[in-house]
Queue: 2 jobs
Job 1
Amino acid sequence: MVPSRSSRWAREIRFLLGDPLLFVVVFLVLSSLVVFILYPLARVVATSFDTPKGFGFSIFLEVLKSKYLLQGFWNSIMMSTLTAIGGSLLGYLFAYTISRTNIPFKKLFHIIAIIPVVSPPFIGAMSIIMLFGNNGLITYSLLGINNYPLYGFRGLLFAQLITFFPIAYITLRGVLESISPTLEDAAMDLGGSRWQVFRKVTLPLSIPGIASAMLVLFIETMADFGNPLILAGSQFPILSVQAYLQITGMFDLPTGSALALLLLVPSVTAYILQKYWVSRKQYITITGKPTTSVIKSVHPVAKWGLFGLCLFVVMLILLVYLTILWGAFANVWGTDNTLTLKHFQYVFGVGFRAVLDTLTISGISTPLSGILGMVIAFLVVRKQFPGKHFMEFTSMLSFAVPGTVIGIGYILAFNSPPLVLTGTLAILLLNFIYRYIPVGIQSGIAILRQIDPAIEEAAIDLGADAKKTFFRVTLPLMVPAFFSGLIFAFVRAMTAISAAIFLVSSHWNLMTVQIMSQVESGRLGAASAFSVILVGLILLAIFVIRAILLYRYGRLGGKLLNI
Amino acid sequence: MGVKLVNITKVFPDPHHPGKEVVAVHNVSIDVKEGEFVTFLGPSGCGKTTTLRIISGFEYPTEGEVWISGKLVNNDPPNKRDTSMVFQSYAIFPHLSVSQNIGFGLELKGLPKETIRTETERIMVVMNLTNLANRRPDQLSGGQQQRVALARAIINKPSVLLFDEPLSNLDAKLREQMRLEIRRIQKTFGITSIYVTHDQGEAMTVSDRIVVMNEGNIMQIGTPFEIYSRPANRFVADFIGRVNFFEGTVTQVREQGISVRFTHGVEREVASCAQTVRSGDQVLVVVRPESLKLFLKGPAPMGTGSNSRGVSERILQRVPVQSNASSGQPFLEGRIDKVVYLGSVCEYEIDTGGEKPVLAVTHNPIEEGFFQPGDLVGIDFASLSAHALPQGN
């Protein structure tokens, strides 16, 4: 018997043909991934090489010749690298403090640190302008400084750190909690000092997690659009903004595409590093009985030092968000701070279309994206078929592709037959569905890995066919993961801007885009009011979904939803 | 009718060496009679679980035939086979209550609600689960989950019950209790059962017949007595229980047993032989530790044999040991090297000058008396408890 790759393929194909339902589902999913993820990307690549003289590199040469555009590329790389390092460091210290010390207000600190994750990513930038800008509360009103040099590198780095460090915090807290405290006990028992235990055990075990967090932060910062649009200014160009301006300002699609491609390459590289290299290095240290966390491994001086740091960070976050809240009620920010409801009247009057549109688009796209994510997760974890790795890679790719790139890809791909979608609801929906499937896939894969395959086998053994097993056993068990994935996908959809800004039209507009244009025209009050409503809607949705889950699934749902 | 496996072979792609293959099960044939309880026993990786999964339909054999109740089922998926499995992890549906779990199979058959309810209740009475009917699986102990898994399997009245190491997640005491329980239930319903385990005590307790497997091959099929006392080969003798091997040459073949001259010159009768042998054949004689008789030849030299265990100092005084074998030369002589007191039995390692120490076990040690380390003892056995394996096969 000579085994070979082709015989396995043949076997898988035969198996697929023997299960028509599986075949149809796999075919539909694969082809939709190609059309709505790969095709737009291919159009970006094609357009950036599509010179008047046919295929060539002349557009790239133009970009490389332009000092200004090249500067944007290096600025983006630098900003992303610094945010990755600084944000991961901050996130690690925060996570270490929360998981390894017994400081007071732990729960409160945790909740406040998560606020930036569930709010629009450009709120940091807005708030910084309101605090330190020309009419800034601190710079102008308190210190009397006019024209504080806020725009550019300094302000943007500050905004990015505040916006993205919570992602590192959440990741690294998971990493630290999976390191069994008994390992630290053992090191201490063998005579290690607290510092040695940290240096020689805890830190080495968290290195892969830190590397992973850094790459995620790098990807997120590369892709970020809102903060640089508000804060970067003309002295400190950022690639994602430049690509946007090339297309919306100069109507130069080829150059915009070329810039998008420049943006895509580092992001996808970081993603591939993260997925195929760093994640392989992760240690698994969970052994035996779960142990309660040790409190003794941190020296009191270190503990209060860390507490001070966390308190400072938490205060900054609160300052940022309370400023927005105040701004929403202040008459004219910075000059006339009397309280008023006029900004909210504006939002519920002129701006209410955007609120309804946002809710419609997020409300429709999120569950669809969640279901698609669950189906893909199920196929990837439980089924064997040709193209499985392709399906997994493509569907998770959206995570790495900056919104700007996919936005440009969509207007290039769906502006001409056979699929003319620009300006419609459909293009926004499709974009959101395929952009946020990784969230659903990740939570789906996580739960499926926890469900013992024997449970499904038991159902089959008792006489259930594939369909009944999926609907009666697998699906009910996936529901809590589905909903917790849904929360994140919903938050992302509600706060999306980088891709959506290319796709909105006079018929379908989004709150985030509205906020941006209000900020750009200097109407900070209306922008704040919009932001408050947006965050309020998100919190309400989270609350409702959680309530349903807690009512329906009791402890199980609550446990899974613990961010 | 029962279950019949004909020349089953299963080949997997090797996960560690892409492109290569591993033979998990090799040419396995067995005929399990209706109502019989057969156990597949072997070290991990011997192919026993794969064989079970081939019977249940979760794996397809690369070659060979699977017959259940006289029907060739090679191409039937698990849900079309009349088998019910009790999983190692129990695989209780976590989103369903105890009674919903048990009734799941009947519900799939589309039986009326009333029937499902009465059937479920009846089974829960038999399995002593009635007061747990509305519990959720995460509120059950290991033993209770085990009973739910068993109840869920038998309610379908399958023609074959399959057990995949069902007791390996329970603690020792509960395990002994549950294996009797499983045997009782199986007898009550008379269901043909195939059981997989690596625990020989479990296999001995529950089985009508045991199939010993190693590296994908069947090493022996037999009753618990045959497997333990009349093993077919060295692997089975060594795998089941503890064992002494003595080498020798056949000197005489009689109607009942053979005579063997052992390498150290002594001749003894051996009652049984795994295969027919001829005079002059090399054999390996298997004697279990508890079949060896020990008698004192001389006490330990002063000062060397003092027992280090404080507790046993007084109790372990030398009770005169029966001198039944004083007539003639003992089979072997040696000095007691190690004494392990286990309560119900006492184990000895005896240095006879051979490569490995000889293992002996005495029962009821308080009455029979103890030996001290350093004691010189004679060792012998009765011909009935000795079993010869032809060498070189």
Note: The interface with chain A takes residues 11, 13, 19-21, 56, 58, 77-80, 83-85, 87-89, 91-95, 104-105, 108-109, 152, 156 of chain B (CB under 8 Å).
Job 2
Amino acid sequence: METTVEHVNKKKKIIKRRSMIYVGVLAGLLIIPLLSLNNFTMRMVIMAGTYMILAMSLNLITGYTGQLSLGHAAFYAIGAYTSAILSMRFGWSFLITAPAAALMAALVALLLGIPTLKLQGAYLAIVTLGFSEIVRIVALNWMGLTRGPMGIPGIARPEVLGYRIASNTQYYYLILALVIITYMSLYRIINSRLGRAFIAIREDDLAAQSMGVDILKYKILSFTIAAFFAGLAGSFYAHYVTYIDPQSFTFNESIQVLSMVVLGGMGSMPGAIIGSVILTWAPEMLRFLEDYRMIMYGAILIVMMPIRPQGILGGIRFKLDKEEENQHEAVGSE
Amino acid sequence: MKKVFVFSLLMMVVLSVLLAGCSTETAAAPDATEEITIAVAAPLSGDYAQYGNAFRRATELKAEEINAAGGILGKELKLTFLDDRNDAREATNVAQRLVGDKKVLGVIGHFSSTASLAASSVYEEGGLVQLSPTTSHPDFTKQGQYMFRNINTQAVEAPIAADMVVNLMDKKRIAVIYINNDWGITARDHFVEAAEALGGEIVAEETFIGGQTQDFTSTLTSIHSKNPDIIFLGTFYAETGMIAQQMKQLGYDYPLAGLSSLYNEELIKLAGDAVEGLYMTSNFFPGDERPAAKEFVDKFRDAHGQVPNQFAAVAYESLGMLAGAIETAGEDRAAIRNELAKIADYEGVTGSITFSKDRDVIKEMSIIKIQNGEFVIAQ
């Protein structure tokens, strides 16, 4: 039986080690642009960052809450369009359009979630799939608002506190900030009462319900939070590429993000990050294979599944997390 | 334990493949002063691969010709092909890669408006010529100073088609069916405006989503109730085949007219009799008697055993123009852009080409029709 003093000391030690890791990783990420990487590499890093936000947010629904969503591109699209339209029509800056885009995506997810999240498994998958088609077709046909298939070209580059973001290095720091915000928020959520409710629903929804977890409410929450971050990613994409059209947000995009989550490991935040890095880079790195490029891409996924169905980092618990959990359990048992 | 082993082995294979990708790239970078590199960015895989392959075949043919004639600036012309899968995001990646590769002096591409527009901001920033043989979106060349196109926009083509319908075919009550994409919408807008100015009357307008709509019977019935003289199609050949056949099945017999997008042998294969008598505008027609066109068609047929389509034709002459600009300007991206902008009366396979000050082209068009199951010149 350890004393309270020992316990507190141990806890402090964990926190200290954890923050050292964070500071190290952050310092590493901050100096990436100083390595004088070429613009192409920087672009790939930035695109990987965008997909990290998408994959981490989808991971919240699919990996942690256990609800299969095939419509993540819809919220990505809503974010991109909201941001682009606000920026083009009203000249609002990125600091306003980005939160507005995220809130819009979250609002739509909330409205969609209330009637549909009572569904489970394949039924929910079909509903989200249908919804993402609806969003694409609305974007295609609501000419007055979205310019339909003409798309929206010339979206303003972001301005943050009077500082105009134009070079890839500047975009890198912006996406880094967004990725960190997303990671921290989702990390806090997952390791809270909320997160434990999500995981309970994933593990066994009946048991969760009998323990007093309001399943529907938590599913809607999970869905809405995930859509919020997907909208944020969409906003960044619109201001980065400066041209969007309905073609950029097809069903393929949802599948791409889902593959990242599954490859990296469902229910693992670092997994979602690694999955998005690999699947963003693979098509470019495999370019020398020419016609066999996309076959190789598919082969990576196929080979992966039988060997490691839980994904690269799925089911792996890091040493520090384990120790921290043990601590929690120890507190619980006292 | 075994699983861990297999897994780490797999990861090593994946990593080595990825790293191999890196190393071939960097190894190829230096030592190439004896070559002039032009990139061709197009959908070489995926749903649109046929168009990318038309680009590839035509530009390879032109590059062979140029090299046989001594190359550019006495150096060998080397083409590098990059696949964008017709995907906006991938197109921007390709663009960034090309902009960063100092050997690349110009780009022929991309195929669709989505890819071209998404990539344009990257090319503009990097100061690299983006000459698209096919992008007809009106905003494309407005994205910057480095964007060029070698195809008539609908602002040029649709009024010619309107003149064809109203004057040549002498039909006044017109029903329009158009595809709901950037191309279809601009085609419709310019056609309707020009046709009304010429004294035509638009009695019905119907649209559909490309690749999804298969059943046009309700569209056709609703058009039938308006009693038009003619149906004008702002569509591609695949839907046109369906529209024509379904019209026949419904027992209607309206004359059809369309745009250069319909010029494809597949149309006749798909629809047979149903498209007999269809009139259309055309950028490029293999039966063309002008020597430049004839020579191209013969060479292409020798090399690939088939007649080139219009996508091959515009890609072929795009490379010719870009190579010419490099010959005059030297190996300097900005100078190449300025030289290309000056091109006037270039004798291409689709006729004489001049860039306007907005880097758009205005080309002559011919009118062709389908007669006895073949495309023939109507005017």
Note: Strands of chain A lie at 159-160, 163-164.
